[in-house]
Design a protein that fits this description.
Length: 281
């Protein structure tokens, strides 16, 4: 089933590598490596630019760990993003594809922003899962690590489907024990896109610590669960990056292909569930 569904940031490689090349990024942090598909492409870029890739993932697949062990310019941190990020410095670009919930993503962006400001760097963050189903609904790989007051009611058995802000029991797209869905989509502090929007609003507003407000640009590419590219409008490379991503930003054709892909995939899950039900009956 997994093979049927493309779901990796690797699908956006040409765009992501185009961004980091235009931004002259040498030191890249990746949050969420899984099999390491995107990691390998980022590592090639970093090696060519004389830089390093730091991949943060508390539970990546074994093939990633074996590969990373053999790469001198790749460092794997087996920790959660919020634990590992405060110890990082001189980062040119952040790839954010770890735990897809409001609390985690909002705080990842805050930490990336604080580190970039401290080190005198413009912010460049590329985020995955900015569209359905995670845009307005939290998912949790490890709900126990999210403070209770920031955690929505959730279930490992819940399934999600298009056009339904609630959830289905034992039907729809579900985590099969690997992750839990918030039982409801929407509302405040729920989902990856909501976290990005709130971060942008806060970063562009007056700051407590006397920091200059950021002027941020955000491109939203509505394919393969959504890719967001967030960057500092004052960076010397900002115009170049903006020109590259603009044709994809909120592109209606891409968005309708994504909805079609999701409908087809959800139909396959339904047929598969029916078959399992028939077999059990
Ligand atoms: C969707 S996969 C990443 C896919 C990969 N970026 C790609 O494009 O091929 C999500 C990964 O994030 C990791 N993860 C979960 N919670 C995390 C956290 N709090 N910090 C860092 N990584 C996390 C999981 O172990 C999993 O391997």
């Amino acid at each position: 089933m997994t093979d049927l569904l493309i779901h990796s940031m690797t699908e956006f490689s040409s765009l992501i590598l185009g961004c980091v090349e235009r931004a002259g990024a040498r030191r890249i942090v990746e949050i969420g490596a899984e099999f390491g598909g995107m990691s390998q492409r980022l590592a090639d870029h970093c090696a060519g630019a004389g830089g390093t890739l730091t991949s943060i993932d508390p539970a990546p697949k074994a093939e990633f760990v074996a590969w990373a062990d053999g790469c001198p310019h790749v460092r794997h941190m087996a920790a959660t993003s919020l634990a590992a990020m405060p110890g990082l410095s001189d980062v040119d670009a952040w790839m954010i594809d770890g735990d897809h919930n409001y609390y985690t993503v909002f705080n990842e962006l805050k930490l990336a922003d604080a580190a970039s400001r401290r080190d005198g760097k413009p912010l460049l963050a590329v985020l995955h899962d900015t569209d359905w189903p995670c845009a307005r609904r939290d998912m949790y790989y490890a709900p126990e690590t999210i403070p209770a007051e920031h955690r929505h009611p959730h279930s490992y058995d819940a399934g999600v489907t298009l056009g339904n802000d609630g959830c289905l029991r034992g039907r729809g797209m579900r985590g099969m024990g690997h992750f839990a869905w918030a039982l409801r989509a929407g509302g405040p502090k729920n989902g990856v896109l909501t976290a990005i929007e709130d971060f942008i609003e806060q970063a562009q507003g007056p700051t407590d610590g006397g920091d200059e407000p950021r002027h941020l640009l955000y491109a939203h590419i509505p394919a393969v669960f959504g890719l967001g590219i967030l960057f500092d409008a004052s960076a010397e490379w900002a115009e170049d990056v903006a020109a590259m991503v603009l044709p994809y930003h909120q592109n209606e054709l891409i968005a309708s292909l994504e909805v079609n892909r999701l409908r087809n995939y959800l139909a396959v899950i339904e047929w598969q569930d029916r078959q399992v039900g028939n077999r059990a009956a």
